[in-house]
Amino acid sequence: MSEVYDVPARVREGSPNPMTTMDGYRAAYAASMDDPGGFWLRETKQRLQWMREPTQGLEGNFHEIADGPVRWFGDGELNVTESCLDRHLLDRGDKVAILWEGDEPGDVRRITYRDLHREVCQAAHALRELGVKKGERVIIYMGMVPEAAVAMLACARLGAIHSVVFGGFSADALRDRVRDCRAQIVITQDEGLRGGRPIPLKETTDHALVGEDSVEKVLVLKRTGADVGWVEGRDVWWHDAVASAPDSLDAVPCAAEDPLFILYTSGSTGRPKGVLHTCGGYLTWTSYTHQNVFDVREDDVYACVADVGWITGHSYIVYGPLCNGATTVMFESTPMYPDPGRYWDMVERLGITVFYTAPTAIRALAAHGDEPVRRHDLSSLRVLGTVGEPINPDAWIWYHEVVGNGRCTIVDTWWQTETGGHMITPIAPATPTKPGSATLPVPGVLPLLLDEKDRIIRGPGQGRLCIDMPWPGMARTVWGDHERYVSVYFSLFPGRYFTGDGCRRDKDGYYWITGRVDDVLNVSGHRMGTAEFEASLVSVEAVAEAGVVGFPHPIKGQGVYAYIVLQPGYEPGDDIETLMNQQIRKEIGAHARVDLFQFVPGLPKTRSGKVMRRILRKVAEGQPEALGDTSTLADPSVVQAIIDGAKSL
Ligand code: PRX
Description:
Elements: H1 9-12, H2 22-34, H3 36-47, E1 58-59, E2 71-72, E3 77-78, H4 80-84, H5 89-92, E4 96-101, E5 108-112, H6 113-129, E6 137-141, H7 146-158, E7 161-164, H8 171-181, E8 185-189, E9 192-194, E10 197-199, H9 201-209, E11 217-221, E12 235-237, H10 238-242, E13 254-255, E14 259-265, E15 273-278, H11 279-294, E16 301-304, H12 311-323, E17 327-331, H13 342-350, E18 354-357, H14 359-366, H15 371-374, E19 383-387, H16 393-403, E20 409-413, E21 447-450, E22 461-467, E23 477-478, H17 482-490, E24 497-505, E25 511-516, E26 520-523, E27 526-529, H18 530-538, E28 543-553, E29 557-566, H19 574-587, E30 596-599, H20 613-620, H21 637-644
Parallel strand pairs: 4-17, 6-7, 6-8, 8-11, 11-12, 16-17, 16-18, 18-19, 19-20, 29-30
Antiparallel strand pairs: 1-2, 3-13, 4-5, 9-10, 14-15, 15-23, 21-22, 22-24, 24-25, 26-27, 28-29
Helix pairs in contact: 2-3, 3-11, 6-7, 8-9, 11-12, 14-16
The structure holds adenosine-5'-monophosphate-propyl ester.
Residues 265, 311-312, 387-390, 412-417, 438, 499-501, 513, 515-516, 522, 527 line the site of adenosine-5'-monophosphate-propyl ester (PRX).
């Protein structure tokens, strides 16, 4: 049985938030289940500045999702930037909104709510001048600079729909996203900077946009001053367009259900999907969870060290914290630059109180021992968060004992791009924790486990995790393809949202996420589809077939294992492996690569030609004895070859 960690008294003391005990949590949870519409209407009216207050809670349900998305606060009208900026001007105008730490330690910018409001208005003016109107799509392809947040908010100010593309993605990946949403504008920078190395964002943008006729303008922030290519008539410098623009601009009224942003994420097919979030429900959810889960307080220095290119950056660097009037840290560099003490140096210098990172980073840092942590004074810390993948108990305990010095509580937050915000997680001051468990559902979240025969599991058990009731923060659709949304999330278990994750519930009702049960990989917290890797691999001339699966990796959580069948006339070798990884880098991005290649005579297929992925998975996981029934294979002899040639790290 795993140990239970009570919340340290110093974490609970002085909390201004409503759920400081388990009784408080249970009461809120019960209220959210009794009357979800009423519960969230009350929350949203307290949290958001509405232009027209909503009177409607929830409309629609999962059984009728094929007819159209669910709606929350349907008759309300707002502009999310008024909640994130304008209303703070009165009593938080001089409070730091964004505390930016650049790539070099100590390169700090403090941007107050007043500054941020001004810059967002100026950037919105500039975008309007460039032709952006409500409902248009704007791609943001930037590094971790404050202007990335400014750009997002400037779009929101105009009611335009932003789609942030992580700066590690390649030109091909960027082009696919520009094309899918028919973006009108791309906002980028000359170069990004990470770990002392420049990232050629403008150059990649130029490659991506060759022949793309939807993009009229490219707005370019100067970050490093590098020489970059310039397309006259299309490219515009940020400092020319933004700095001299008027410093106020009326926020464009939006319906609660108007789109706020599209974020592309990987699924089971080769084509990423544009998950769509809307204004009212998303902001309510991120505000509620940010405040309650982290127990955020007025004087906190809150740091989420994710990238703004992923959902974590959207919800917990930008929208949730700014809606709550918090000071949110934005970090441009990496945990290893210039050395593995970087996070802790930053915690000490900036006085960080809440720190939110990924298990991969924790494992990588733990591998460097305790000294880089111990040499810093981390007494400001109160709440430590993790997100993105299951955290193994060893890493959890290291985080708790060494980083937290046993004085902090850990919130292991389970959620997804599609859920908009936290779903299963401790509430910092209230929930006793267990290493490796995401603990209990947030109020409003009704989890359900289904066994292999699709029966509901009651009490303890392990199965596939569904959510049985709409919540305000959920993605409403896939951009331009509602059918795909319905088929991906609501077809396996009609009437329920299927998460794609496996999960165990223990006797205390605590949830333990076991990882994806579909063809999605989670490498260092980066979500990637096996099908995306396979499509990229077979585009290499030498490759006839490819089968990609994940395997347990000590640092990355999951590594990528590729089974390769070569075309006749080609021989296995390092040069082909290099070529294949180059192709993946070109088509997906620098964050994607295969860790282990195995050349095989054929893939294990059924007589109808379907690859039996279970076999590939078991061999990659080092469990060839657990292959199960292989009698339905067209050619059982390939299995032996696969087992004999298995690779490991
Ligand atoms: O498998 C789960 C894992 O990450 C997936 C969602 O990935 P993405 O949409 O990129 O969002 C990541 C940031 C929210 C989930 O399906 N995951 C996320 N958080 C956890 C987790 N697995 C276990 N524990 C978590 N805390």
